[in-house]
Design brief:
The strands form five sheets. Strands 1, 2, 3, 4, 5, 6, 7, 8 and 9 form a nine-stranded mixed β-sheet that branches. The longest helix is centred in the last third of the chain and has 30 residues. The protein has 27 helices and 25 strands. The protein starts with a helix and ends in a 5-residue tail after the last helix. It is globular, with a radius of gyration of 28 Å. The N terminus is likely disordered. Helix content is about 45%, strand content about 15%.
Length: about 775
């Protein structure tokens, strides 16, 4: 089809449904650029798609060829032109590659969507396209695999896989830089108060509801202070918020001014350290970020990582973890594996008793009508009690106020696991449908404000918000039906979590699942469930004992596969006895899953590689850091700790000592990145402070101190979290070959990393 036909269709002012069909037919013959080896579509930066990168397509092959030449020069890879032969397959390939949509002839945006009621939203299920010059109601239209769709406003939601989107941005736009462009800092200022001009340097904190969109639901409830990397972004932000900024207009309350970045950041932090400071909020994802201080230095986090910008340059801090936000967090084994089995014997005991046979569809529908008709309140545990293994738990917070959702009271000061507790997943669905959803709908319609500032502006569109609620109800009913007729699967929790986090404005779920599964598989942020307990509680030891007993009982059931245990024993030899029970169970589970899956090209093995990676992390914590923490608390006097905290606050304490102090105070986890940072710095530098000296002496009490901090050890740790664990979670699928390499290198070889770790961390006689 010649270019003229495309232009005539693109510029149509009063489109009809016949034009929609013709548009999809023409789009299905467009050209795009792809990698000649991997066949992956190559994206471009576009303001039409603000959360990620789209694939450019062209009606004219010559235009596509011109782009190919530019791309080959920039990316230094061999590319080729391909013509779309199957439109839907093309869109799915784009989505799997980490692209958020497509764009035709640099003019028409093609966006990936889901129905809100879709139970599985791992990939888009419908597509949205727009006529840019439309003057009637048909500005855009949806279509799926069967053609044009009629949709109800509020029943669809933009498809998102932010981890993959960010990976694509890092690869094709950021190029190992903090931002696309140089930061020329600007701020927004109130010009007058009571008719008098405010002197520069005495500006008032201007908080905006969307002042730090990079943090998502983790932004301060009061709002945030925005900073912009150029004046244009500041002007666009003001326009979006409906605020005049032109200097020549009289009566303007606000103005945009260039700022000295660090002076401005220090001043705002001194005024109120609890406000977040966002960079380029509401702009393209690759231009956004937020500022925070670490050890007296200013850090900037963007999709490319955390950067130390305190000296005017930008230095990537690979081992630093931001104090808040949802970037670069581990994803639980429960979320990764769709075929993972629950360890809970009777997950629907309240409804089915001891029977394990799934319900028929008719029985399931009856239960849905009866059980979801009224709210099932969470179980309020008596002080000191603990949930049952077959209780269903949800940990989350209110997106508006930041308050945690929790009813459990395990100690006198209400410090607990922080979970809502339900008899089962069906009861949890009932609670969300009948208790939280009506309140969320009201907040979406009318808005909500906090007494101390901040909140959410209502849409005042009752019909649309009700449509959203109808879709949420439909999705929850599908989930309940699948659970009742197919049997409960831990992967269903990911559907539950994604539905709530995408559709509710008042609720954010961070952790979800049956207690037994959370105890056995661990939490999504990489820690054990007991790490959420309050050590000062009078019930702490009782709770730890209950968890240990529960994990041991589950483990004994899981270790029934004697063949895998024999394989591990043969590999580790006498050192097998030093392995913790948790690690024995995890290794056995990983090897069993690997053997069951076999060698296939259509399977992601990241869940299995994550398990064997987790063993190394757990053993490091179990054999080195937990005993050091106990000894440090016994041997380092309180007045010394107070002095160290003072030095830290005054930025006079070394990075290693600060990290160890944070670990001691439970402000930092002993994840692999932190462990590598410590061992690497202890090997390369010398330190003279009480905290570091104590940790060094503790390490020297082991059989092979030199190996513990060796380059061999730290290099393997880096491979674990960049290739076997985080690589699988955030960047790419883990193939059979990579998973096999992880299992053999870390566990099963006669000279495996685990064997060396167990041998090296034996105490000297």
């Amino acid at each position: 089809m010649p270019l003229k036909s495309y232009k005539s269709l693109i510029s149509i002012e009063y489109p009809e449904h016949a034009d929609c069909k013709k548009f999809t037919e023409l789009m299905s013959k467009a050209y795009y650029v792809r990698n000649i080896n991997t066949k992956e579509p190559i994206p471009v930066f576009s303001f039409i798609h603000s959360n990620g990168l789209p694939c450019p397509t062209f009606s004219d092959r010559a235009q596509c060829l011109s782009l190919l030449k530019d791309m080959e020069e920039v990316y230094e890879v061999e590319l080729e032109i391909a013509q779309i032969s199957s439109l839907w397959d093309f869109f799915i390939v784009c989505a799997k590659t980490g692209l958020c949509g497509a764009i035709l002839d640099n003019a028409i945006g093609i966006n990936f969507f889901n129905r809100l009621s879709d139970m599985d939203r791992s990939l888009p299920s419908i597509i949205w396209m727009k006529f840019p010059d439309s003057k009637n109601n048909l500005k855009g239209f949806f279509f799926g695999r069967r053609g044009i769709l009629e949709t109800t406003p509020g029943s669809t939601i933009s498809w998102s896989n932010q981890d993959k989107f960010d990976q694509s941005i890092r690869k094709y736009v950021i190029n190992e830089r903090p931002l696309r462009e140089k930061l020329d800092a600007h701020g927004i200022f109130q010009k007058t108060i009571n008719g008098k001009k405010i002197p520069e340097g005495q500006d008032i904190n201007l908080l905006f509801e969307h002042g730090c969109t990079f943090l998502g639901p983790y932004v301060s409830p009061e709002g945030a202070i925005p900073v912009f990397s150029n004046r244009t972004f500041a002007e666009r932000f003001m326009e979006i918020n409906g605020i005049n900024y032109e200097d020549d207009k009289t009566g303007n309350e606000y103005e945009i001014r260039k700022i000295k970045l660090f002076d401005y950041l220090d001043r705002k932090t001194n005024d109120n350290p609890f406000f977040d400071i966002g960079l380029n909020p509401l702009m393209h994802r690759c231009d956004q970020g937020w500022f925070f201080k670490n050890n007296g230095k200013w850090m900037l986090e963007t999709v490319s990582g955390i950067w130390d910008i305190s000296d005017g340059n930008a230095t990537l801090k690979k081992d630093l973890v931001a104090p808040k936000g949802n970037l670069n967090q581990q994803i639980s084994q429960l979320a990764l594996s769709v075929d993972l089995q629950t360890v809970v014997e009777y997950p629907l005991k309240r409804l089915s008793g001891p029977d394990k046979t799934p319900f028929s569809l008719d029985d399931a529908n009856e239960i849905i009508v009866e059980d979801l008709s009224k709210a099932k309140e969470p179980i309020e545990l008596i002080e000191g009690n603990f949930p049952s293994v077959d209780n269903f738990l949800i940990r989350g917070f209110d997106k508006i106020s930041g308050d945690s959702y929790s009813l459990g009271t395990y100690s006198g000061d209400d410090s607990d696991l922080g979970f809502l507790v339900f008899p089962d997943i069906i009861a949890a669905i009932s609670f969300f449908l009948n208790d939280l959803l009506p309140r969320d709908e009201e907040s979406r319609i009318n808005g909500v404000s906090l007494c101390w500032g901040g909140g959410h502006t209502g849409s005042n569109n009752k019909s649309r918000e009700q449509n959203i609620s109808y879709s949420i109800v439909d999705a929850f009913k599908k989930l309940a039906a699948a659970t009742l007729t197919n049997g409960y699967k831990p992967s269903y929790c990911e559907h539950f979590k994604r539905l709530v986090n995408d559709a509710f404005i008042t609720v954010q779920i961070e952790e979800i699942g049956y207690l037994g599964d959370l105890v056995f598989y661990g939490l999504s942020d990489g820690i054990k469930i007991e790490d959420t307990l309050d050590e000062d509680s009078e019930y702490f030891k009782k709770q730890i004992g209950r968890i240990d007993a529960l994990r041991k009982k589950i483990g004994n059931n899981r270790l029934s596969n004697s063949e895998t245990e024999v394989v591990v024993k043969k590999s580790l030899g006498s050192h097998y006895t030093y392995l913790s029970d948790d690690s024995k169970i995890i290794i056995s589970t990983a090897i069993s899953q690997f053997q069951d899956k076999g060698k296939r090209v259509d399977i992601d093995y990241s869940g299995i590689s994550m398990l064997v990676s987790k063993v190394i992390e757990r053993e490091l914590k179990h054999r080195i850091f937990n005993p050091w923490i106990l000894r440090a608390r016994q041997e380092i006097r309180k007045e010394v700790l107070f002095e160290l905290k003072t030095l830290k606050k005054e930025s006079e304490l070394g990075d290693v000592a600060v990290t160890l102090l944070d670990i001691l105070e439970k402000k930092r986890k002993t994840d692999l990145g932190t462990v590598r940072f410590l061992f690497k710095n202890l090997r390369e530098k010398s330190y003279e402070d009480i905290m570091t000296d104590h940790f060094l002496n503790f390490l020297k009490s082991f059989e092979n101190f030199n190996w513990i901090i060796s380059e061999e050890h730290t290099s393997t740790i880096f491979d674990i979290y960049s290739k076997y664990r985080n690589g699988g979670v955030h960047e790419h699928l883990v193939s059979y070959e990579i998973c096999k390499e992880a299992i053999e290198r870390l566990v099963l070889n006669s000279d495996s990393q685990l064997k060396k770790l167990l041998k090296s961390t034996k105490q000297k006689n």
